[in-house]
Design goal:
35% helix; Dihydrodipicolinate Reductase, domain 2; alpha/beta; globular; Alpha-Beta Plaits; 26% strand; homodimer; 3 domains; 437 residues
């Protein structure tokens, strides 16, 4: 199938990330999409050529974005300029020129989405906006497609990473709002003017979009209740904690008999809820459907490559609906059948992992030395040892050892040797340990 | 657009759930899909007519499943019989008859998926299997489409609810494996023969599928390392806890330079990880992509309606690729543009929620009585009160009150009255509280 030609508007953080990911993962993406995704034209007033890979594969880079949307060779326009204008004019012009559009612009969709979608509908083109909400988390896809069988009852999301970072630091480190905000600005999480983040406007843009796709209502940003986190004090975070709650800045959309709630405000939630434990700059959206029950989607809500991940997924999606050719569908196993890999499955003996070991040792000096000598000889480092008091009158004590990562066959051999020691009773209990980072 | 005609094989738990959800949410689903999804034929050896709604809308119910897959009127066959045979023969026959197939059968896909997909590819039909892994969580869609831009580095999932229920109860209640297993069987979470769940075979079926779509390798169930949870003792759960870990039964797929790891086994994971806090019968899959970073998907992994949610989403997906007509695509706002709802957005004053209130009260008898009298008169019930010791020499003490749910306008009025009390200093800090259930 011939390559999809893409015109990119904007080469800032997300634009650069999009070019970089498309370049680095070109082969993996083509194995999935069944065709090459090629940025043939790009527009930017300025960009940092040193931080972008694969610039030489772009036919033309211009400073005139309208030149790109008017180029007849381009199938799909990616809008990553942000803001209302000229993003709105560019997107409408692209649609007028029969081009599909992919955008990460939450402000644009929340405010001008109704107009843009009406124009797209008329022209029969798609406007995809997965990257506009919760960065790399495929939340739009999950709600629009994955939960299509459900009446959505409500959703609640941590959809602004800066706000969540501030609230997390206030709780975990006992810091003040102002203090953390300054650090967030220094780290680049928050803008020099942090109003959009801390006053909840950014979250309200995203909630407006989520509410519309959950309940099938037009976008109504102006009716979304918006309250920021600037008034939250350390003592509130502390008292909430004492009562078993966490304070999170949530966007909540809920269907009631009287109407639909769309509200962004700080919220106490029980600490046992999974979403209460979403910390730092991470995002998460909890969606409750009448058939599926509660579901949660978690990941990075911002950043160059997480956002690029969503942008490129949208481009692949748009490319999929261009023809009904079965070869253009999502492949059964995600990758084109003739592009499956013959990589082998590793035998368990060759897997590298960490271990929890529990053994019954005779309660006398030198036993632990024997065990650690065997582990050391096998090249196995010890992460922690827990030796319990023997039960009254018991001749053996449980010894628990956490090891660092090692190839399983070496661990098997060491376990056999330890089990052969006179001072060790029974079999050793072995459970694998993963840090999942 | 004309209705999609579906033939349903199997009217057990998931089959009944599928008919019920399609019946209850018919309008909502049609608003999204742009057409009616209609079960015109169904096959079952037996079924419980009292637990199924909308049976009268099915043209014909037969006990011969082959009659359904051979019916020329049917566009899509849903296979919910389970097991290897006759499910395999039925699915292959449906494909031979040019029908698309939707299945929830993890064992069938893990063992015979390569054969089935090859047959489907030849005929140009789709075989969709979202419901085969992690029930209602749209994890196949997330990996195949949502993360299409990424090289998947690894994934780790709690993909067997019974096993997770047992491990959760062992930790939280200090119960033994055998004891909890018996309860799980009584509750219907575990089969009379629990081998597939507790020995990890069910999880291995699902991991085989996840590994294939993550890395683009053929399905290789026989090479998936499988270890159950039957050897885990209470003391291991307890020691792991003391060391800051939780024991979870994980399916792990990881790409290494030497090959691909596919392994199911009990695993210690740090308690701070979100997935370590997925409890009871819930499922979750953590997926790490090179661009997006870690993402997590959480929800019900089994049950009639959660599984039906995934089955029906697959049917809608299949219906979408039947034509390139723009009206057949996923609508921008999830619902067809002419089916958007004009439900109003509730003003914040009309929203019902619970509250956290913090006030500065003079440290003298009777003040709390005044406050609770005002709340009581406004119909606001108190959930908890936290009164702190005054700081040395301070004339005021912080009083924190958690209330039950009430309409915001009543709370606004009560707050105004409390702030007017002589014994209360400054403004009241008010943060909303949601239990998210």
């Amino acid at each position: 199938m011939k390559p999809v030609k893409v015109g990119l508007l904007g080469m800032g953080t997300v634009g650069s990330g999009t070019i970089n990911v498309l370049h680095r993962n070109a082969e993996e993406i083509a194995r999935r999409a069944g065709r090459e995704i090629r940025i043939s034209h790009a527009a930017a007033k300025e960009y940092n050529a040193e931080k972008i890979h694969g610039l030489d594969k772009i036919d033309k880079i211009t400073d005139d974005a309208f030149e790109v949307v008017n180029n007849p060779d381009i199938d799909i326009v990616i809008e990553l300029i942000g803001g209302y204008s000229p993003a709105r004019e560019l997107v409408l012009k692209a649609i007028e020129n029969d081009k599909h559009v992919v955008t990460a612009n939450k402000a644009l969709i929340a405010k001008h989405g109704n107009e843009i979608f009406t124009a797209a509908q008329k022209k029969g083109v798609m406007v995809a906006f997965e990257a506009a909400v919760a960065g790399g988390i495929p939340i739009i896809k999950a709600i629009r497609e994955g939960l299509a069988a459900n009446q959505i009852l409500w959703l609640a999301g941590i959809i602004n990473g800066t706000g969540n970072f501030i609230l997390t630091e206030m709780r975990e480190e006992g810091r003040t709002f102002d203090d953390v905000l300054k650090e967030a600005q220094a780290l680049g999480y928050a803008e020099a003017d942090p109003t959009f983040d801390v006053e909840g406007i950014d979250a309200a843009h995203k909630l407006t979009i989520l509410g519309s796709i959950a309940f099938g209502i037009p976008l109504q940003f102006d009716k979304t209740y918006t309250e920021g986190i600037t008034t939250i004090e350390r003592q509130d975070v502390f008292y909430a904690d004492q009562l078993g709650y966490r304070i999170k800045h949530l966007g909540i959309a809920r269907k009631t008999d009287k109407g639909i709630e769309l509200r962004v405000h700080p919220t106490l939630i029980p600490e046992r809820r999974l979403i209460a434990n979403v910390n730092g700059v991470m995002n998460a959206v909890l969606v409750k459907g009448d058939a599926v029950g509660p579901t949660l989607y978690y990941g990075a809500g911002a950043g160059a490559e997480p956002t690029a991940s969503a942008v490129i997924a949208d481009v692949v999606d748009v490319a999929r609906v261009l023809t009904t050719d079965p070869n253009n569908r999502v492949p059964h196993l995600a990758f084109q059948p003739n592009k499956l890999s013959d990589m082998s499955i590793l035998p368990m003996e060759e897997v590298v992992t960490a271990y929890y070991l529990r053994m019954q040792a005779i309660d006398r000096p030198g036993v632990l030395a024997d065990v650690t000598r065997i582990l050391g000889a096998a090249g196995i480092s010890i992460e922690a040892i827990l030796q319990k008091e023997p039960d009254e009158g018991a001749s053996h004590v449980p010894v628990i050892i956490l090891t660092q990562r090692v190839r399983e066959k070496f661990m098997n051999k060491a376990i056999k040797e330890i089990e052969a020691l006179d001072s060790i009773n029974d079999k050793i209990m072995r459970i694998r340990l993963e840090t999942l980072t």
